[in-house]
Amino acid sequence: MKSKLLFLLFAISLATTVHAAGPVYAPTPADYVIPDFKFRSGERLPALRIHYATLGQPHRNAKGRIDNAVLLLHGTGGDGRQFLRAQFADELFGSGQPLDLASHYIILIDDIGHGASSKPSDGLHAQFPHYDYADMVEAEHRLTAEHLGVARLRLVLGTSMGCMHAFLWGETFPDGADALMPLACLPSPIAGRNRLWRKMLIDAVKKDPAWQGGEYKTPPVQGLRTAADLLALAGSAPLQNQKQWPMRDAADGYVEAMDSAIASGPDANDLIYQVASSGDYDPSGGLEKITTPLAWVNSADDFINPPELGIAEKMAPRIAKGRFVLLPISDKTHGHSTHTWAAAWKDVLVDLLKRSEPTS
């Protein structure tokens, strides 16, 4: 129970309700080490470890090029394993499904600072290089293009933070993929309420006396408790929450369970870096550069990307081959985490794969 709760609280890329696993997926794990990686901050890491795993097998076309690779990009605080959960994998990876493992080569990556990839808690703590989304996308591209030999991906699908990475892929590597599917984000700066709660979270941890500039001996529990509260609200879905906790005592019990699990939650430095990495994200000036077929899906109950801002409707027409879909609130939506519940948007993916089918 504790591990499931922690995964829920501290990975805003995941769903607010977790179903039991369906078929067992056994990805092949591996690490790719990039020597002397230079971050945009000017800092360097002698060896940047990028952890990843794969499902299915690569297929080569008549020209000898891999043509069936799909890159899945997780959200803030998550890792590649989120895509093995039933609400995602069972809808997409099975026989006859859009990303059938019999015909697709799936790449699950742990981004910089996440999962089993290089991160502050490995030992450098607050001396770890400061990374941003552009650094993460660069590492994603080097893994797929240089290490795995995939010159052009069949699809880049990203959720939350990975959604924002998908927009950066379209601008930075216009020939890097046949199709892009950003889920649950906006191609605009992290500002307004979205920036407020992120800044509050970072400050709460840093201002906890136990943090000690990142060299804490015990977890800064008070700061992490505030961080957990903010993450729980940011990822919440009112309709689903009302069904989960229809009475006061049920809701109170959830909060109390959160409190009891805080000390064994994520590393505080890792969390600060993960949230801070969005600080300079802003692809809004280059949307016309995206020439790849794109399907962008948000949900109307998303606290982080509320539809009333009207940003998506203004931005979408600037993407030549883009299609924006706003999912109305329903039993299929789960707030921000709708991105991981594939049943809500699978039909949009099917359409994207059809209209992006390579001609040669």
Q: Which SSEs are present, and which pair or pack?
A:
Blueprint: H1 2-10, E1 28-38, E2 44-55, E3 69-73, H2 86-92, E4 105-109, H3 133-147, E5 155-159, H4 161-172, E6 180-183, H5 192-206, H6 221-234, H7 238-244, H8 248-261, H9 268-276, E7 294-299, H10 311-315, E8 322-327, H11 346-355
Parallel strand pairs: 3-4, 3-5, 5-6, 6-7, 7-8
Antiparallel strand pairs: 1-2, 2-4
Helix pairs in contact: 3-4, 5-6, 5-9
- Please give the domain count: 1
The CATH homologous superfamily is called: Alpha/Beta hydrolase fold, catalytic domain
CATH architecture name? 3-Layer(aba) Sandwich
Average residue-wise pLDDT: 92
Task: Give the overall form.
Answer: globular
Strand segment count: 8
Task: Summarize the main sheet.
Answer: 8 strands, mixed
CA(first)-CA(last) distance:
49 Å
Structure summarized in a few sentences:
The chain has 360 residues and is of the alpha/beta class. It is 32% helix and 15% strand.
Provide a descriptive summary of the structure in words.
The protein is 32% helix and 15% strand. With 360 residues, it is of the alpha/beta class. It has one domain (2-192, 276-355): Alpha/Beta hydrolase fold, catalytic domain (Rossmann fold, 3-Layer(aba) Sandwich), CATH 3.40.50. Helix 4 links the parallel strand 5 and strand 6 (180-183).
